[in-house]
Records
---
Amino acid sequence: MNYEEYLNAQDGVATHREELPLGVFYKKLIDKKYRNVLELKTELVDDIVFCEALKAEQEKVAQITAPQQLHYELHVDSGGVYEIEIEQGNFQTFAQLIDNNPAVVAQPGFIDNTVSSLLKFTTMLNEQGIYHLCFAPQNVFVRKGDNMAMLLCHASSFGAMTHTDALFKGFEDFVAPEVLSHEALDERGEVYSIGKFIEWLYQHGEMPYEYKKVVARATQQDAAKRYGSAADMLSALQKKRGLKQSTLMLVAALVVALLCVGLYFELMPQTANIEFVEGAKQESTDDLLDDGINPVTEMGVWGDMDEEGDTLNSEERLQMEAYQSKAEDIFRKQFAKEADRIFSKMYSKDRMSLSEDTYIQSNNLLANELLKLQGDLATQAGISDEKAQTIASEIIDKLREEKQKSVVRYGVQKGGSQEEE
């Protein structure tokens, strides 16, 4: 006996049967095709009010074109309505889905899309005066492929029944207290049941903060403390979800900002703390002569000197001094020009922003250039190295003082502190 023959022997009933509030859901072989059917509970089909209400609802939901609404046809025999045949499609209950594939709830967007879709569809139904009232996982269907949540029969259609206990038997945990006590069939009852459905979705995982707050209010025993409608519940959920995303984005932005600041200080060259030291003044040969060295008795180079140790007469000495003064002036102007050029390089903004090692190495090269220029200009002007050194020291001291003031004015760090323009 093959599988199809076995099914036919079993009156076309597939092995899996699931209990729903209105009856048993399973796949049945009808005219060599498997159809989704719901075999109604005996206590329900024996109630004439239920049967008439079911016929009226079947016509009403046929007008609902939303993809979340499942349509159906009634199967009737001599005893009346006994089952309904659900529209063709590949779908199952949420209870079946989670039982077969528990990991599906962890898929990105699965719960968010399911809850949002249910709340939107429920809002549309409520606007037409239709209330589902029991969102038990066995009473909410899901389409395979895109996991769209779908609904079949709605409890408010059977509100005229004297006793509605049979509608929710075995699924009372998902029904609002006032609905069970026959007090009200309204939007706040929808909010309660959807809240219980969300709790069930997170039965094996940690519920996010935004859902905790919404579900806690939605499942209050006192209907007045719940959200007024599914639309209000959806709005509250979206606000809390948006707040969470904004907070995460803010935290992420702060982390990125701190990282950028850290990289900036890590990669930027360190500003050199330069301590300016006064240049050492060299004692010239003229100073030594003034301190009492007698060229006649100690150096032996003035053999033809007169009694005062001088071989030049007054006129010759004046000419020599004038020539010497002119030579010193030439040296002073030329050296001052070159020294200003070199010091301008040393104290430029670009050079002051270099690292300490690079700055020192660069300045050493400029200092060597300045020393060489001093010697070359002294030779050209015809003055002694000692005199050139004295004049150069005076010029260097003056330029250093001027450049230090310029550095402070443009905000370059001096002596461990930093001033800004």
---
Amino acid sequence: MSIAKKIGDTIGDKIGELTVGKVVALIAGGLSASLLAAWAYVWMHVNPQFDYVAKPSSSASHFVGLAEILHKIDTDSRQYCSGGLDERLGRIGLRRCYRFTFVPGLLYKMYVCTHDELPIEAHTSDQLVALRAFEGKFASLQCFSVVPQQSVGAYDYDIVQGKGVSFHLLRFPNAAPEKTPFCGCSPSDVKGIANTIDAKLEN
């Protein structure tokens, strides 16, 4: 065999090795990227993070309207809880699917007079933890309590009215009067809130 042929064969082998190595590296990289994407998808379904922030108004009562926050917590508690693959993936981790019931139903529309400018926040993947955070923040005002429905299911809870809640009739423009819950609010606070949210206080 000539020296030129030996050199050619050697170069060919080296090129072949490099090509195979690159192919293997590309396949490995592709598999790693696919596994990473799959892991991210599963993780987001197993343990998604939720942010709940209620900012008190600038009025003297520094009231907080809880309707948007409590509605979001309730809605998020059913996210990835359709009973299909999403829920099964969630069960791999710590994801819990809750069923919350407001007692009475209008309770989630509550206005709370915090007399505090600090925002109320909860950052968690667990909606029960979020509800407990808001319950604890208003514990001294006795606005609401989160009570397990042990006779129904392990993840069923009632959000029940506390002793500090009073109901007042508010009428918004072009709407019928509606009972609205207030907590920790004096009569002057209630009147001020009605003016701020463009409603007429009827009692």
---
Amino acid sequence: MDLQEFKSKKPQFVKEASKCKDELEFTRLAEKHGIKFGAGCFEKAYALFCSPNTKELSEDSLENVSGGANFQIAEIGLGGPSDTFIVTL
């Protein structure tokens, strides 16, 4: 799954992430939404989703990340009430 598809599947997470004030708040929000980050990608995801001047991901942000960070996002059903999303580089 790419970032645009992730954004369409988790719009509430994207909206709430833009309001996070620090990494701890972002971590708690990700846990609440069933999102886990692989080694080395947390800081890049935090910078992307928690930009202080952005309420949602712009097309430029998506292009920059897709060209630079190359996130891979997997949706995994673990038998709980909702699926888990794993974000890696």
